[in-house]
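Spermidine/putrescine ABC transporter permease, pasting as requested.
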Amino acid sequence: MHRETLETLAFRTGYLTLFALLLLPLLVVVATSFAASGRLAFPPESYSLVWYGEFFGDVRWLTAFENSIIVGVGTAILATVLGVLAAFGQEIDDGSRIGSIVGPLVLIPLLIPPVILGITLLMYFSELGIRGSYVTLVLAHTLWATPLVYFVMRSVFSRFDWQQLDAAADLGAGPIQSFVHVVLPNVKQGVFVGGLLAFIISLQEFVMALFLSTASTETIPVLAWTEIRQALDPMVSVVSTFLILFSLVALVLAALATNLEWVSRQLS
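Structure tokens follow.
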């Protein structure tokens, strides 16, 4: 057997093993969500949709689900705007002192433990009197989501033909017109992917939401944590299954809307 064949076989075995290790826990979660009993165990003794019925019949879970969607959409919009503008600004002003520090500044929230961020934001928002609102959760999640959008857009902008901006300026277009009519149409796929990542990050973020949410604004992860501390039943698996489903749907939408080959080419 040739060396290249052995290397290819080893590589495929490695990533298939890694894929299985990542996938198996998810399959266990989904399977236990269909348990008929009130005990969380794998494999379930019998299967039923009773816990899904409990979920849709529980106002508290539905409210948490609605809160997660509201915060996720708000985070996606704000993080996408900030990430796109930061990446665009650095690309056109990369040689200046300000442009050179934008990247490290955007990266800072990812380097700070979320517990520290949560405590700091809790103290700050409490002083402002806005703790527990949707605004505080959106701002907190935006701190984490914006760097992801920024790095996606930096990669996308690095392949953008900037001579198009010069041509637009020669034709009399102003900066805003050039950005809206020239830049955005060429990078809209990257913008969509960045916004989708921001939404998924917000949907699953737990630590900062635990510090900043109240009973009226608690998200799905926060409520799941509260329920786990009281009783370990299949409802937790039901909620986790919905989060997994949301992530898969988001990936499918990204594949359909942007073409995964285009995404991998932009990020390579």
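Note for the archive: Residues 58-267 form a domain with the MetI-like fold fold (CATH 1.10.3720.10).
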